[in-house]
Amino acid sequence: MASLTPAQYLNKTIAVIQKRAWRTTAVNWRSVKAKAAQMITSATSTADTYDAINYVLSELGDNHSFLKNC
């Protein structure tokens, strides 16, 4: 299987967040997706998307969801 580009990785991650998070109705997804995409314009690896993913998770406002870096 081919590796995902940073943009593909971010989009797939956001899709999972939208599907599984509890507070998704409280989020302006159009705005959040646009800002997250802007945050990764110079990304060259999926690791470069972590700040954008953390931003998306913070917009849930649940003080529960987080990205664990291993």
Give your account of this protein's structure.
With 70 residues, the chain is an all-alpha fold. It has one domain. It is 51% helix and 0% strand. The longest helix is centred in the first third of the chain and has 15 residues. It is globular and about 30 Å long.
Structure summarized in a few sentences:
The chain is an all-alpha fold and about 70 residues long. The protein has one domain. It is built from 3 helices and no strands.
In what range is the share of β-strand residues?
Answer: under 5%
Task: Tell me how many strands there are.
Answer: 0
What overall form do the CA principal axes indicate? globular
Distance between the termini: 22 Å
Return the domain count: 1
Radius of gyration: 12 Å
The share of residues in helices is: 40-55%
Mean pLDDT across every amino acid position? 92
Q: Treating each run of at least 4 consecutive H or I residues as one helix, how many helices?
A: 3
The sequence of SSEs as H and E is HHH
Contiguous runs where pLDDT drops below 50 for at least 5 residues: none
Based on helices, strands and strand pairing, what is the structural class?
mainly alpha
Largest sheet composition: none
Keywords:
70 residues, mainly alpha
Element layout with pairings:
Layout (H helix, E strand, L loop, with lengths): L5 H15 L8 H11 L10 H10 L11
Helix pairs in contact: 1-3, 2-3
